[in-house]
Design goal:
- Residues 1-6 have low confidence and may be disordered.
- With 111 residues, the protein is of the alpha+beta class.
- A 3-stranded mixed beta sheet has the order 1-3-2.
- Helix content is 45%, strand content 12%.
- It has helices at residues 6-22, 34-40, 56-69, 98-109, and strands spanning 42-44, 83-86, 91-96.
- The chain has 4 helices and 3 strands.
């Protein structure tokens, strides 16, 4: 991590390991690309999630970040953590990342 001393990072890793110890072993984690989530899943946004609220500036920033990452040596582009819960074979409930997912989905229909 940029800006962190080695000791700080080791401390964070130890703390994270302790947290993982308490997560039930029945939890399964996987890493998926944004395109996979949008193409292979039906997404459900639970009622407790806020409505879509991104401003034009926030949308523009995300889209500019995507554009800069295309063809870059630094690919893949990290869009941020998106957390979902599998509710069926192809159904994912969005826990975190709704604004980014919605923006990307809307944009993908208008290309």
């Amino acid at each position: 991590m940029v800006g962190h001393r080695g000791g700080d990072l080791r401390h964070q890793e130890r703390c994270f390991s302790r947290v993982l110890h308490w997560i039930p072993s029945s939890f399964k984690f996987s890493q998926l690309g944004l395109a996979s989530i949008l193409k292979q899943s039906r997404l459900i946004v639970p009622p407790n999630q806020r409505n879509y609220s991104w401003t034009k500036e926030e949308v523009t920033t995300l889209l500019q970040d995507f554009a800069r990452s295309i063809g870059s040596e630094d690919t893949p582009y990290f869009v941020g953590t998106i957390v979902t819960i599998r509710k069926g074979n192809d159904v994912l409930e969005v826990v975190d990342g709704q604004q980014r997912l919605a923006t990307t989905a809307i944009r993908s229909f208008h290309t």
